[in-house]
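Sat 14:20. Reprocessing the chain from the morning session after the first attempt stalled halfway. Input below, unchanged.
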Amino acid sequence: SAHLEVTGQGCISHETLYQRIYADKRAGGLLWKHLRCQKQRKKRYGKTERRGIIPNRVSIEDRPSIVETRKRIGDWEADTVIGKNHRQAIVSLVERKSGFTLIHKVERKTAQAVGQALIGLLKPHRKKVHTITSDNGREFARHEEIATVLKADFYFAHPYASWERGTNENTNGLIRQYFPKNRDFTTITQEEIDRAMERLNNRPRKRLGYQTPNQVFFESTGLALQT
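Finished this time. Tokens:
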């Protein structure tokens, strides 16, 4: 489409081209075989961002630079891990320096349920909560309430920039070892949640000088961390 336009051969939208290709496919043609992605496309309308606008979001661009250095304990990343058929979810929190992880199952991925879970998980550690960073999911719409209760600052990563919450993304991969994508989350017990947290937080990490997240978060050892 763009090539035709810049070479002066006409102006045809990419959607028109796709419609032509799939019409050819329905007629037994093979044009679709030349597509890099050969799945049927669905035409989308409107803006690229469809997750909804969360009022009063504060961008990660305004987050203090010290968070990026991992030199202090108290900077958290938040996310949700979804169960099979999008039934129920696990709220995950990870502290950036230590890797200390907190998880809680919610029956519905609503702003109210996720907000209550975040507050409940972090309240016992309130003195070690300076910032929280999440993606732009609507489940984090109660960020102002969370920030007020915990006396912390809440930031949002850029849309579709998961690398800005890399610690959380990696931790979610570890959580999936215990609760895989094909697991029906309605069958998860609190005992399983507690056991997964215990194993994650007592798992020695290379980047921590082979200390565990528990040891670093609670500063229970004098061993030096790798930098």
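The chain has two domains: 2-34, 60-217.
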